[in-house]
Amino acid sequence: MNDTASAEAVATRTEQFDVLIVGAGISGIGGAYHLTKQCPGTSFVALESQASFGGTWITHRYPGIRSDSDLHTFGYRFKPWRGPPIATAEQILGYMGEVIEENDLGHHIRYRHMIHSAEWSSETNLWTITASRTDTGETTRFTARFLWMCQGYYRHSEGYTPHWDGMETFKGRVVHPQIWPKDLDYRDKKVVVIGSGATAATLIPAIASDVAHITMLQRSPTYFRAARNANDLADMLRELKIDETWIHEIVRRKILHDQDAFTRRTFEEPEAVKRELIDAVRAYLGPDYDVDTHFTPSYRPWRQRLAFVPDGDLFASIRSGKASVVTDEIERFTETGLLLKSGKTLEADIIITATGFDLCVLGDIDFTIDGKPLVFSDTVTYRGMMFTGIPNMAWVFGYFRASWTLRADLVADFVCRLLNHMKQKGARRVSVALQHADKDMPLLPWIDTENFNPGYVLRGMHLLPRRVNKPEWQHSQDFWAEKDEFPAIDLDDEVFVYA
Ligand SMILES: Cc1cc2nc3c(=O)[nH]c(=O)nc-3n(C[C@H](O)[C@H](O)[C@H](O)COP(=O)(O)OP(=O)(O)OC[C@H]3O[C@@H](n4cnc5c(N)ncnc54)[C@H](O)[C@@H]3O)c2cc1C
């Protein structure tokens, strides 16, 4: 250490914790809850770069922002959800706020702490985490025995916007929904939304009645599922005055049962499912609408996330004439809008790029292991939670085809069990290692893109860990298998190496 660095180390107080949680989104808050319940006596801190909790649900502030999966399963296993299945960001933040309050988690969370580096030392069996305060610029330092990565999967500071020719010539405003400008006045304006995923499907009905016209421009169609934003079973159980805790459990089981059946059908009879989904859209839009061009995807349902349309609101906007869909490709931006590959033009005052996220797998934190920079893509994933060569660390990445939080809860149970096991054994370090017989198996990309292939994963595959063709060395997207497999993991199995 040189003189300046040692002076800085003295000046910067180092706080010590058993566990350090990165992020105070739904996964980080869930982790904090589970630690207090399942590992009492464990000291921990959650560091969050933003000014409050919520993660995704405070980052995204575009009009209409809401969940696209139901809150009975997106909500935590341990806290009943009492509202309608699809919830606004505000409702989700309210729910998370209650979890923090009811369980006295607030004093464990440090806001405005942006973590820059995490250094593992096998000598001390500790992580040293360096963060800077986003308000004062002060450097803060922590050591932790265990690092729980709840950083989400995308860069919060910016969205993904592809470059198109002529963008700089456009005289109107280009806006990414992730960074929604507070002053954006869209009233009576011509608006084009590029993209047709969940964000477009949310935003369009939220502003359609205020704009002059809004066009959803897509290169290719997306599958949508439209249904009433209500859960009949929950409503019935409420009418019968059943306890909310029971309602939560029963409704979750029913939803998960139905989702399992639906997911299976998308593999077993994709054509039938495709027809059903498209017919449902046709029923909303009427027989004269060109559903074949605009709402008939070429891929198998569920290869990309299915966008849910509560109460068919997107389709109501289209029927009202305020919104329309164009399926075409952008040739280039012009001063007044877009020139499309077909030769058509779209006039616009505002162009909204609902083009997705920038994958960010480790929260933009520089990791080193015993002084060597970590290359995450050189590691092999152990069930999408731990990685070869990274000791005392767990990572939360939720489901694509089921609610994220289902996995956050399962991973939390695993982490707590692992921490308790280490305590019992007197172990200071745990890592996962491929068995000798598995070492020569080919390393495959993180996920099979035949199975699931959203754009941000395809763009970021080179950043992600590898898998081996064995169940424990894969990141499965199967809640229905993992809900039984995770609790049954033998922590004394040879894959776990303790020291
Ligand atoms: C608009 C939108 C809607 C979605 N809807 C659904 C849905 O309905 N259902 C579903 O299952 N999934 C949905 N998702 C996926 C969603 O991101 C997850 O479900 C979930 O909210 C992720 O929670 P998280 O806590 O793991 O991560 P995040 O919500 O991403 O939170 C991570 C937190 O970590 C913080 N952080 C990251 N890096 C650092 C660092 N270096 N230092 C300090 N803090 C850091 C971030 O500031 C952030 O607050 C949606 C995603 C988006 C973008």
Assembly classification: single chain
Average predicted confidence as pLDDT: 94
Low-confidence stretches: 1-7
Write the CATH fold name of the largest domain: FAD/NAD(P)-binding domain
Distance separating the two termini: 27 Å
Give the CATH H-level superfamily of the largest domain. Answer: FAD/NAD(P)-binding domain
Please state the CA-atom Rg, rounded to the nearest Å: 24 Å
Strand content: 15-25%
Name of the level-1 CATH class of the largest domain: Alpha Beta
Bound small molecules, deduplicated = flavin-adenine dinucleotide
Q: Sum up the overall morphology in one term.
A: globular
Number of helices: 14
Structure report:
- This protein has about 500 residues and is of the alpha/beta class.
- Helices cover about 30% and strands about 20% of the residues.
- Strands 1, 2, 3, 4, 5, 6, 17, 18 and 21 form a nine-stranded mixed sheet that branches. A five-stranded parallel sheet has the order 7-16-8-9-12.
- The radius of gyration is 24 Å and the shape is globular.
- Bound molecules: flavin-adenine dinucleotide.
- Flavin-adenine dinucleotide (FAD) binds next to helix 2 and strand 4.
- The site of flavin-adenine dinucleotide has 32 residues, from helix 2 and strand 4.
Quickly describe the structure.
It is built from 14 helices and 23 strands. It has 499 residues and is of the alpha/beta class. The chain folds into two domains: 3-156 and 359-498, 3-Layer(bba) Sandwich (FAD/NAD(P)-binding domain), CATH 3.50.50.60; 167-353, FAD/NAD(P)-binding domain (3-Layer(bba) Sandwich).
